[in-house]
Here is the input.
Amino acid sequence: MLSDAGAAPSSAAGASGGEESVLDNAPWHALTGPHARFAIGGDLARRYPDDVAPFVAVRTWDDPHVWDALLELVGTGAEVGVSGYDGELPAGWEFTGSGEGVQLVQTPALTPRPDDEAIELGADDVADMLAIVARTQPGPFRPRTHELGRYVGIRRQGRLVAMAGERLHPAGWTEISAVAVDADHRRQGLGSRLVLDVAFHIQERGDRALMHAAATNTGAIAAYERLGFVLRRRNRFASVRTPS
Here is the structure.
């Protein structure tokens, strides 16, 4: 079964930005909104290009044609991540894994600020960005993920030792993601500094910040809560394989 475990009350009121309802289906509202230029698909199912992000989104699970649209979008025998569905899979579809994640949103306690040591990262830095992701495993990151928003990092002796940036972008909100710090540079506050820098620029353009994490990553969740984020919802997600 796939199901959202429900939303927890948030205290994010009082900041500028969009309605929280779009966060219930953030990838869809990103791909039909600010990230529409990346979207592959149609009215029921969309995805990012493979070299940008692995996310697939559907408008609603209530439409009986959504599974056909999803199959057409990703092809036969493909493994795809889905969330928000509560029911049995259609014939020929197969579960391959599941987990639980959390969604956090900013509160008035968040005090973003630019970081003097943070440098903006772009196409020329992709090799270094992919390398730190491989070393630290913060989550999915592809060769063109940096095109989704603003990415920043900290270099020491020329080596990229910390990174964070913007990923999903539903209207009025921007996700802070790819928070990565090399093992020998942890406990120095670099990750927190970059999160606050990214959040500062998100707020500068009138958006609000959100974050996602695996429910098992309790250390990161606690760190984000100390910065001024609050749990908004828990959700179940799963990997499924399309019919061969």
Observations:
- The CA atoms of residues 53 and 145 lie 6 Å apart.
- Residues 1-16 have pLDDT under 50 and may be disordered.
- DSSP finds five helices and twelve strands in the chain.
- The first strand starts at residue 4 and ends at 7.
